[in-house]
Design a protein that fits this description.
This protein is an alpha+beta fold. Helices cover 21% and strands 25% of the residues. The protein has a 5-stranded antiparallel beta sheet with strand order 1-2-3-5-4, with helices on one face. The longest helix is centred in the middle third of the chain and has 17 residues, at 58-74. The relative contact order is 0.24. The structure holds adenosine monophosphate (AMP).
Length: 110
């Protein structure tokens, strides 16, 4: 998608350090963190949002939650508070599907 900021990050047209990268997704810190740890898990394929998820994304969604678990362990969040958030509709500001992993103390509501 030409004008999509997350597509530009994925294509490395906008420089960004990735915490993790696989064939299907990238993970990078949210630029405006809402919690002590605030990572975005972003599929490389341009999917506009939850409304565009179909059965063909079943494997991708499994991979996303497997990476969430890996990040939870790496960041020692198992016994701390953490949350995975996917915004949609007017609550979604970047129209490229992404999962927020929020860990530790919240700073604000997203
Ligand atoms: P949402 O409201 O769920 O669409 O969340 C979009 C998130 O993307 C917000 O938390 C923003 O702070 C974050 N964001 C926007 N641009 C960037 C960027 N260039 N790098 C990292 N995070 C970003």
């Amino acid at each position: 998608m030409d004008n999509c900021i997350f597509c530009k990050i994925i294509k490395k047209e906008i420089p960004k350090d990735f915490n993790y990268e696989s064939e299907n997704l990238v993970v990078f810190p949210d630029i405006n963190p809402s919690a002590d740890l605030h990572l975005l898990i972003v599929p490389k394929m341009h999917i506009g949002g939850i409304g565009e998820i179909g059965e063909e994304q079943t494997k991708l969604l499994g991979e996303i939650y497997a990476i969430v678990n890996k990040l939870v362990l790496e960041n020692k969040l198992t016994d701390d508070a953490y949350r995975v958030v996917v915004n949609g509709g007017k609550a979604q500001h970047v129209p490229h599907l992404h999962f927020h992993l929020l860990g530790g103390q919240w700073k604000k509501f997203i």
